[in-house]
Structures are given as structure tokens and as C-alpha cells.
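Collaborator request, handled under Task 6.
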Amino acid sequence: MHKIGALWLSHKTCDVLELEEVADQLTLDLFSEDPRVSGYAIIKTCNRVEAYITSEYPREVLEDVAKRLKLEKSGIFVGKDAVEHLMRVSCGLEAMIVGEDQILGQIKKCHRDSRKEGAIDSLLDMAFERAIKAAKRARSETKINEGSVSIGSAAVELADMISGGLDGKSIVVIGAGDMGTLVAKALSKKSLKAMFIANRTYTKARRLAGELCCEVVKLDDKEKYLSACDIAICTTSAPHYILDFKLMARVMEHRRTDNELLIIDIANPKDVEERVGELKGIELYDLDSLYEISEENLKRRLSEVSKVERIIEEELEIFQYILNRQKAEVLITMLYKHGYHVMEEEKKRALRYLEKGRDRKEVLEGFSHAVLAKTLHTPTKILRNYTDANFIDFLILQFEKEFGADTESNAYSESDTHNGFEALETEGAQNEERDGAEREHPPARSEVRS
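C-alpha cells returned to the collaborator:
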């Protein structure tokens, strides 16, 4: 985990223009061309720009980038802090609107794109996966994302609450700017009868309507649709009233339904003249109503933060456990390779002895002892030099569980493994000495005859 680093800038330290400038400067090339970097990913949203990397020297790399780009308002996290920050961001705890869902989709896309480009390595890949899982848990196990706290979302929530549900309702959204787009997108997830987008710039409204598969209308035709719709949400930035008293009086005269017309005005300055609320058959709500909903929902979300933080702690522990398991697997692989090498070498020796006609039982005995001795020699030497009493106690406990607690009886010491092929080698050496002596001093003819 110590190899992971994060460089971040957000709405907490920068304004929108500053973040836009940083987003243009902070490119993948900064990391792809750095030999110190193993993996990298960059998250860019309207409220934050963040780079995540893996390196043997993550802080050094990120400080170099911050210095080169003159990112004086940036922050750097390394190791566990970097992973925790990624999890907090994905869970919405670092968002301008606490618990917002949009950031999770942006992190998923960043993760997916980085994988596709081959920019992310296995360690950073796992960090993103755990952060995404933490965010999913936060949303399913807590209420961190329940209740609308943005004005656009609160407008939809208010419409749903007052109208008794939006299913089968017809709605006109007036305005296709940022707020209108947010409202229309939230409404598109409901089971509406119809939704109409009206805007002064027709092409802008048509683009949004095409994206959300709804209908586009000209702003001048708004009276026609207001007379038939159940709800109108006004979101323009016009300096004058879009719906004044006279216009709405005409609309109500020609209204084609007995249902009350719910109008929610979230524009600033107001799109709807206040006197419109006095007309029979119209319910008018403005920003003040929405602020009350937003504040109440925000309080509920903030009360869930501690629960989300506990989930993050759990996910950090799981991540560390996975990394430790991977290290253990590396060690286990080394042990198996060592054991296999010993086995192959001793097998060759055993076959040579069998070819020389040695006793099969003795060869098998020597082979078994040799493999055991040579395989365990290095690990036991390392254990003897290891002084962490807690770890040794842990190993003893685990071995007792696996092999039984009676470690005294049937004790098998390292000296018992030294027999190996030694007896066979001693016997072979004695035979070779005797054969050599006979060659140097052959027996006398008389001795041969006898």
C-alpha cells in the first residue's frame, strides 16, 4: 500500500476556473513518461482534479509534478492515506454535496478507461476496486445518498411529494441550462406520461430532449403546454418573469384538465411572478421551500457519515489483508520452487544409486531424508534468526492446531535428517577404496589358485 500516492485539488481549495486550468495541465503524459511510475489514473470532474499513481517513490514523483505545474493549492496523500482518500471520494464524503452519486460513476469510468489504456497496474487496480466496493456498501448499508440536497433534485422530490407521485404525470421543464438539465435528468428516471423541454434557444432544448428521449417545444408555445400539463418547473436565468400573472390567468382559462397546476420556481431571479400563486388551481413553490427540504436532507445525510467511515475502515483492513495474502503467496511459491529443485536433484542421485545396484530400501530411505533435510534447512535457519516473539508464538499456535499440541513426543530433530544418502556414500567410498587397493596390489598367483 505504501507505493500508492494521490495528488488532489478540489472545490475545497480552488474555484471552478482554477480547476479547469489544472485539468488542462494535469495530463497522463506526465506519468506515462516517468520511469519511476508503475501505474496511474487521473480523475477530472467539475469539482475536483486528482491523480493516483503507484511508484517506489510516490511522494517524490507527485511533489515533482506539483512543483513543475506550480500547483500551490494541491495536496498529497501517500500509502494508506491515499487509498482512504480515494474511498472517501468514491463514497461522496469529499463531495460538495455530501453523499452525491455522480462521483461514483465518474470513478468507475476513470477505472475502466485506465484499464483499457493499460495505464493502471495491479496494485492501483485493486485500490480502485476496493474504493468502488466501499461506495456501493455505503449506498446500500447507509442512507448517505438518500434525500435530495441539491436544489434541482429537491425540486423533483418536492414535485413527487406534493403531487402524490410522478407516475403518469405530464411535466414541462422551462430552461435547458445547468439547472434545467439536472432537473430533466432526474425526471427522466421517473415513470412520467410525458416531459417537455422549453427553452429560448431551441437547438439547446432539442439537444437535451434528444438525449433524454422527451419532447422539445418552443418557449413561445409554453401556454399551450402549461394548459395541459400537471407540473411546471422553471429554471431559466432570465432577468424578467417568464410566467407573469396575465399569462398564467390566460392559461387557467383554457386549462384542459381539472387537476391543479403545480409550479416550482427554482430560478434566481424568479421566473414566476408571486401573484401567480393567488390564481385558483395553481400551487406555487419557490426556492425558500426547496432550501428547507435541502437542509433537512443534508442533516440526515451528515448523521450517516460516521457509518460510512466505519465501512471505509473495514475496506482498508480488507485491502491490507489481500496485500498481505499476496506477499504470503510469493513466499509460498519460493518455498515450493526450492522444494521442487531439491526433489529433482535428490531424485537424480537416487536413480544413480539404483543403477549401481544399491538396496532399494536404503536408497528410498536416503532419498526421503535428503529431501526433507535440504528443503527445511534454509527456512529453519531463517526462523532461528527471527526474533519477533509474537510472530513465533502465532506460528506455534497454528502448527499446534494443524499437527496437534503434543510437540514433545516423537520429536524429530534436524540431526535425524543428516543420514540421507550419507550411509550409501560412505559405503560407496569404502568400496571404491577397496577396488582401488586391489588394482594397485593384485593378489599373488598362489593366492588366486587357492
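The cover message to the collaborator said: "Residues 443-450 have pLDDT under 50 and may be disordered. The CA atoms of residues 264 and 285 lie 5 Å apart. Please let us know whether this matches your experimental observations."
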